[in-house]
Amino acid sequence: MMMLKTVLFDVDGVLLSEERYFDASSLTVWEMLNSSNYMGLAPETYKTDFSDEEIASIRKEVFVSDRVLKFLKSRGLNANWDMIFLAAGYQLLRLLSQVKEREKANIERWLSQDIDREVLLDIGSVLEKYKVEVNFEDFLADFQDAEASKQGLLDHLDYLAAKKLGVTTDIFGKKGALWAVCEHISQEWYVGDKHVLNSTGRPS
Prior knowledge:
By secondary structure, the chain is mostly helical. The chain is built from 10 helices and no strands. The longest helix is centred in the middle third of the chain and has 18 residues, at 80-97.
């Protein structure tokens, strides 16, 4: 009888630290919101050369002292790209809720299609006319009633779109263009611009 022996290494979080993954995740959300390459809420102050202290500060703000990360993990979510998508998608909905009375037609148009980079630029060009604010801590309150599963968390964004904006959509409950944008930005941060083409098949 032949015996097969297999050794399985769960590297991330066991042999290697996950901290840089989470740092890159927070920088991804930060970039999508603030960079002129995306929504451009604060293009005049956005930069890409951060010190370790600045990265720690951004991560603390975006993930609310890691409470958001712990919350998502407790609901069965352990994939960084999904965490990024949920955090960024939630802020997008929250920002749109602040202009829903005056931009109803635009919001309905945006949420009726896949949200790619061009749509994010369009949203940013409209939001720059208003005084809007992000609030990362609200994520925890608005997701308390979400089903404790990956799909349940993704579907909850569609639920929040209906609740906050009065728009029925299913674009958040699946891995569409916005998820791909989040993935690509995160890989730019994690592997660097020089290697992102090999990593994702798309240039920086």
